[in-house]
Specification:
Blueprint lengths: L9 E5 L3 H13 L4 E5 L2 H10 L6 E4 L8 H9 L4 H4 L3 E5 L4 H10 L3 E4 L4 H13 L5 H5 L27 H4 L3 H9 L1
Helix pairs in contact: 2-3
Amino acid sequence: MKNLEFENLSALVVEDVPSMRLLLVQLLKEIGFSEVLTGEDGADALKNMENAPLPIDVIVCDLEMPIIGGIEFIKLLRSNSNAIIKDTPVVVVTGHSEKANLYQAVKAGIHGFLVKPVSRKALESGVRHALMNDPIDPAVFNKRTMTQSGKVDIPEKPVGKNENSPEINKKEIDKPQETIIKRIRK
């Protein structure tokens, strides 16, 4: 069922991997976004934003992309002369949860971040948070608890769970991919 609070909003998905881009578009439409535009990289996304028929309400963006990557895209976005484009909330969706990468994105002006794989519920929560809050304060982010390896601490509760997938917990993340695939197929 579509969430009415997103019904008249538009989103932009910036992701270079076609299957992930398609998944993010599908999830955003499922949670109620009426319009979802896409960009294969930061350059494509900036062009699409400037040519969009209506302002984009939120951006869901990968960090690692060719041509113009996520952090550079966010910096260009924040320096845009159009105030509507400049202030668009950004949620980073990344497979790279190292503190240094995320801190650079926070300094560039993101409103939130999610670590792949992303569930519908996590995306909905992240987008809602981005739409209702200011960008993350880099000073506050820098004080967050991180693991000793420099990665963002993942809670012990299940991650990546939705109505169609089994629970995958923190301990399973370190297992070989084939073990996770076996668990999903059960």
